[in-house]
Amino acid sequence: MTQKEIFQLDPLFNDVQMQPVFADGKTFVDCIPKEDTDVILEKYFEQKDSSGFNLEKFVQAYFELPKVFAADYTTDSNSTTGQHINDLWEVLTREPDEKQGSLIPLPNPYIVPGGRFGEVYYWDSYFTMLGLKAAGKADMVENMVNNFSHLIATTGFIPNGNRTYYLGRSQPPFYSLMVKMLAEMRGQQTLNGYLSTLVAEHQYWMKGANELNDHNNAVHHVVQMQNGERLNRYCDAYETARPESYREDVELAHQSAQDAATLYKHLRAGAESGWDYSSRWFKDGQSFSSIHTAEIVPVDLNCLLYHLELTIAEAYDVSGNETESNHYKIEAGKRKQAIEKYCWNDAAGFFVDYDHVAAIQKEEFTLAGMAPLFFKIATQAQADLVAEMIQAKFLKPGGVVASLKNTGQQWDAPNGWAPLQWITIMGLENYGHHSLADTIAQRWLALNDKVYAATGKMMEKYNVEDINQLAGGGEYPGQDGFGWTNGVYLALKRFVGS
Description:
Layout: H1 12-18, H2 26-29, E1 32-33, H3 37-47, H4 55-62, E2 63-64, H5 81-91, E3 93-94, E4 110-111, H6 122-134, H7 138-155, H8 175-186, H9 190-193, H10 195-206, E5 218-219, E6 222-224, E7 230-232, H11 246-255, H12 260-273, E8 296-297, H13 299-319, H14 322-343, E9 344-345, E10 350-351, E11 354-355, E12 360-361, H15 371-374, H16 380-394, E13 395-396, E14 399-400, E15 415-417, H17 418-430, H18 434-455, E16 461-463, H19 483-497
Antiparallel strand pairs: 1-2, 3-4, 5-6, 6-7, 8-11, 9-10, 11-12, 13-14, 15-16
Helix pairs in contact: 6-7, 6-8, 6-19, 7-8, 8-13, 10-13, 11-12, 13-14, 17-18, 17-19, 18-19
């Protein structure tokens, strides 16, 4: 049976998403067609203008709704936060599946972020794996790494998640950190087994680098800077509304001065960043409609690619290839210098993103500026200044806040996110700021415990400014999870107890 993707079924797809038939735009693209999609579309044309036609009933007749996971799970109110998290591993585990609808099948079991999800997500998974490691679940860590390796081998990269509608973009490249985590558990020789996929991951992010010149300074994910340095940006392969957020994207296009294709390009790039969305991507620092993500060289993305280059160099060392190892060490060294040159704001004493189109530093201060400390790129003097900014501006009663602006976007104030707590805490630890790191960890853990006691759930994000709020607001109801919150909680419990 030949199948088009659901998001290719116009005007049916547009009508379902814009009505909307489902409250969550992700629901329809996760449905499974009951017949050949060409046949379904033909029947839609035949029926849609008839009297009494009901679009919702049509969808239910020709599409199988996504499976509802963990619908019968209830929290044991006597469990501690840690016990609850360990009980949840089974609830959040998805088994290998056949190709159905938009799902890209994976060969091994995996952990999803929360009860709502039927697929794995890229950067979420690293922080979830911190918890798997703390819980001694080495086999699941290996399963997760092997699944991502499978995606690289079969699709050429790691998509945002294992869904076909994510095939235009990746997410923050944490694969090298996952492989290093597995090597810590299984031995350094493990690196050799993942060398080819590490290199393929790097090739994906560096695709088009040889096409760069003074007249064509941005291709795919690669940007040529003013003095010829090469850094990276987020950039989706498509310039259409995201299928899973179609209605929201189309409605924003109606409000924006940007043409729709350009807006969609920047929205998709923002989704690839994982920070969907934040004032760090806004040209005016305030309004969503001014988003220009693909024009920005993000400091954290380039730190991740620095780590990838060093990990490839280490893997080549393990395999005995000194020439290739040196090549990647040199590339990492160039990237480190460029990060400091373009992303260090000396006046503010903080690392920032860079607008490569306007050739100026962005003025938004966010926890992305902690990445150079997490990856040990900063000097001690720089790290000391960054720590002062964290203490003075970012530290709140419940941990550290994602940014210093409250724009209504979820990756801005007053929200705190588990991955950013971890990166901040470990970055401060790397440079001897142990007391501040411990303060952040203790406040974050206390907030997690408080909300869990009140709700029986771990949240995707938290309001760190007003710790009497139960969560940081979001795009869907509270659910059993949340993968990266669970993982960071268990890892931080070990950290503060050490």
